[in-house]
Amino acid sequence: MEIKMKNEFPLTKEEELDEFYDDEETLNEKIQKLIQLIKESKHCVFFTGAGISISSGIPDLMSPNGLLGSRRKRELRLKEKEFWKWKPSLTHLGILELMKKKIVKYLITINLDALHMRSGVPFNKMSELHGNTNMEYCTKCGTKFFRLFKTRNALKKNLHLTGRKCDYCGGDLMDSTINYDEKLPEEAYRLAEENCEKADLVVVWGSSLRISPANSLPSKSVEKGNGKLVMINLQKTHKDKYASLLVRAKSDDVMKRLLKEFGLEVDIWRDKLIDFILEQNEKKEKKENKENKESKENKENKENKENLELRISDSSDSSDSSDSN
Ligand SMILES: [Zn+2]
């Protein structure tokens, strides 16, 4: 199966500018329908794209202010240096609440900005299909390392070595971000596919579903006749024909209403990335302490053994001498 990342539906100049907004009354009606669909569902899966990170200050590729021009791309690169200043949006934090309450069972994202991770969504409840800017992993033992900086520094496609080494086995570390024509992470894709097939409701939030193969996942259960699809996006998409509901509003405006209807509030944000880094440093420290202790013990054992050998040779000397006496 081809699981390489491709831009399946490149935007035309006109499409790039077309955004649609529901009026207030329509939006409220649609939110009611959305709530009803979510409440009726048994296995609700969310699928998120760049649209949910715009209010976090991350420009996306597809919106009118997106990164289609090279000038905008340069702007993003400059901004990336300060990416740790980006904070989860209300939508990120709202999704976390919905997951905590088990209203949403699984999350799939094509964003690599790590904001779902930083808001606290557990890794076993999420597929980051295009990787995670803050994570690099060991090519030898597989250990994941979290950084306060962007881990990718290679400029060419298919090159991912970061130049850093694993704290545990000394293996080379690789960044985890996926570029066009590169393979998606197999396990993340498998889980995403499994959950989309199982889902009776998939809500696509802030994605125009242009990038394959991820864009084929949300409509899987609808195509099989088992589930429903909701699209929350300002632009039209090639998968709109499968949707039971199309919501045209800004991401956080929808989340604000959704949380209110569910009677939920978001927690004060605490950066999970910091926790990961602290845990990782603690583990490294423990390992180093253990190694120091072991090498100290080895040294002591060696010294004891040498002393013992010395004593034995002393006593054999004395017995020799006694014999000779
Ligand atoms: Zn390693």
Automatic annotation (TrEMBL):
Residues 315-325 have a biased composition (Low complexity). Residues 281-314 have a biased composition (Basic and acidic residues). Residues 24-265 form the Deacetylase sirtuin-type domain. GO terms for molecular function: histone deacetylase activity, NAD-dependent; metal ion binding; NAD+ binding. Signal peptide: none annotated. GO terms for cellular component: nucleus. Residues 281-325 are annotated as: Disordered. The keyword Zinc applies. The active site is at 130 (proton acceptor). The keyword NAD applies. Keywords: Metal-binding, NAD, Transferase, Zinc. Zn(2+) binds at residues 138, 141, 166, 169. InterPro entries: DHS-like_NAD/FAD-binding_dom (IPR029035), NAD-dep_sirtuin_deacylases (IPR050134), Sirtuin (IPR003000), Ssirtuin_cat_dom (IPR026590). This is Nad-dependent protein deacetylase sirtuin-7. It comes from Anaeramoeba ignava. The lineage of its organism: Eukaryota, Metamonada, Anaeramoebidae, Anaeramoeba.
